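Quiz preparation item.
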């Protein structure tokens, strides 16, 4: 079982269990796997997840890979001047363990790479995807102000990033709606101001709206050219509801795009044995909504067995599939993933889990020529090491 997480001295006594990615909130009742230590007045938490996975995608555009999806996150909290100072960092070895082209994932957004286009792959995480500082200070009995920022971090835009959601803890594969929902979890340049009570948080961010470049081991140029806002409500210990709006400035280069807006809503329900997430995320492009919807859940059946799944709908552009001129400009795609995980070993506070999952996609007829079927399949077998 996950040990109780210590709570640092911070305004309005919010639990560390609420800490998601960036400044996003999780429910208080969900699990918080991690190693927690006190170093003098510093409370330090280390969270990590290391997958060793085999991924096989079938069909005309299929591929396979043995690799590792992984990350480690460090958070340290310290009382300061009547408030709480937090230091955050997150790193991944994926530029080497899945390679610069990433791992196979049918229908994921195509990415430029060395003058070419990589299709049906999910790019690796950055070597450093967060190096940020946050300071919170109470200004009343139940009101606090916060400031968060750094050279790389997450603006107040989108849900808790998928790799930090308990509802996806056994799944190494990114959602197909990632680029319409939580892709800004790595932004090179972020400043966020917020005000919060025990139940409500209102935030506004200035951030870099450019997609990270293909060099995953450096810092991209820092700038604040886009903005966003997010309202989060935790009405009870098992729930967190958030809504957001963001405006992206036009960009040039390999990821060139015109200015556009992004909106969305997430509902997260969390208990120690069952976590679920609903996400709606959409871009507003040329006055039209381009939607994505995700529902995912992980049910811990007992101490060693769990089942998990994800259902998605996403509207892709032909350009995102590198099929411009070959198919309709907008395409409706569905996907269903189901999996089973079993704990196979524990050593002190470290858990080793084996999992297997299968995915089926639901495509319009015009894509069957390129994917070999209207229902291309995929499988993943993984071994995961993380805190218990």
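Solution:
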């Amino acid at each position: 079982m996950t040990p109780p997480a210590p709570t640092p001295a911070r305004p309005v006594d919010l639990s560390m269990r609420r800490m998601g990615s960036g400044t996003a909130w999780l429910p208080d009742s969900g699990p918080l796997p991690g190693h927690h230590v006190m170093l003098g007045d510093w409370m330090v938490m280390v969270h990590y997840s290391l997958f060793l996975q085999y991924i096989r995608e079938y069909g005309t555009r299929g591929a396979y890979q043995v690799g590792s999806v992984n990350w480690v996150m460090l958070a340290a909290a310290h009382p300061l001047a009547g408030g709480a100072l937090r230091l955050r960092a997150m790193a991944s070895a994926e530029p080497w363990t899945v390679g610069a082209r990433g791992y196979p994932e049918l229908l994921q957004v195509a990415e430029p790479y060395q003058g070419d286009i990589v299709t049906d792959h999910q790019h690796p995480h950055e070597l450093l995807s967060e190096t940020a500082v946050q300071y919170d200070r109470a200004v009343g009995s139940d009101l606090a102000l916060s400031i968060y920022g750094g050279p790389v971090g997450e603006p107040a835009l989108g849900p808790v990033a998928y790799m930090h959601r308990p509802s996806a803890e056994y799944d190494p594969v990114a959602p197909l709606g990632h680029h319409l929902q939580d892709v800004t979890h790595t932004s090179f340049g972020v400043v966020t101001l917020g005000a919060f009570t025990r139940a409500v948080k209102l935030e506004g961010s200035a951030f870099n709206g450019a997609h990270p470049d293909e060099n995953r081991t450096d810092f991209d140029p820092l700038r604040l050219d886009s903005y966003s806002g997010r309202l989060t409500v935790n009405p009870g210990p098992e729930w967190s509801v958030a809504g957001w709006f963001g405006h992206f400035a036009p960009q040039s280069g390999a990821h060139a795009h015109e200015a556009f807006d992004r909106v969305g809503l997430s509902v997260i329900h969390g208990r120690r044995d069952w976590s679920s997430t609903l996400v709606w995320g959409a871009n507003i492009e040329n006055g039209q909504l381009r939607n994505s919807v995700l529902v995912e859940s992980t049910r811990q059946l007992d101490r060693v067995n769990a089942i998990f799944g994800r259902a998605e709908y996403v509207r892709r552009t032909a350009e995102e599939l590198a099929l411009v001129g070959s198919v309709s400009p907008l395409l409706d795609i569905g996907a269903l993933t189901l999996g089973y995980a079993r704990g196979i070993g524990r050593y002190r506070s470290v858990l080793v889990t084996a999992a297997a999952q299968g995915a089926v996609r639901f495509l319009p007829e015009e894509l069957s020529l390129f994917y070999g079927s209207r229902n291309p399949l995929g499988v993943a077998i993984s071994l995961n090491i993380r805190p218990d």
